[in-house]
# Entry
Amino acid sequence: LFRSPDGTLWVGTGAGLVRRVGDRFEWVVRDRDRPHVNVSRSGIDSDTKGNVFVATREGLWMGRRNLAGGDFEFGRVSATAGAGRSAEGVHVDPLGNVWFGCGEMSLCRIKDGRVEVWRESRGVPAARWDAITSDHKGAIWIRSSKYLYFLPAGAKKFQPVPLRLPQSAAFGSLRDRKSTRLNSSHIPLSRMPSSA
# Structure
């Protein structure tokens, strides 16, 4: 579930993307319309312009409001064509950069319209990065089924969080003003101070 700044409630499913309109839900992008458009667990976010980003098996998609009709039009983000076929979690950071788990077990960032792939040399081990968030200090947090890393604001390399976390088949994250809260299907809600 994701609520965009305009108040729209979006729901990502294995069969596509739906949104709430008035008192009902309607399909926006469906599997039967476009194959493999299932939305990942943490796969919806939006930027300050109201664009909605969706991580799918077909890559990163963006919905932009059509000014003529007021509806959203969705399509694959062309800048991500070389980033691999699928996208996992997606997060728009406070600076407007779009982070997403991409392709072959990597992390990608769209900055100034270009895709950067973050790998070991930038402190990111090979993994499916399906939970991405930022805290109030601007640090970026990423979680896979077994790793937890963060990138302090202004840093160029991710750092591991020295915790022994259980492997998780399902993981999510929440933010508040003081910390990043992490949750998985195997452990209760836990809090990571932003200064970790």
In short: Residues 183-190 have pLDDT under 50 and may be disordered. The CA atoms of residues 20 and 71 lie 13 Å apart. DSSP finds no helices and 19 strands in the chain. The radius of gyration is 16 Å.
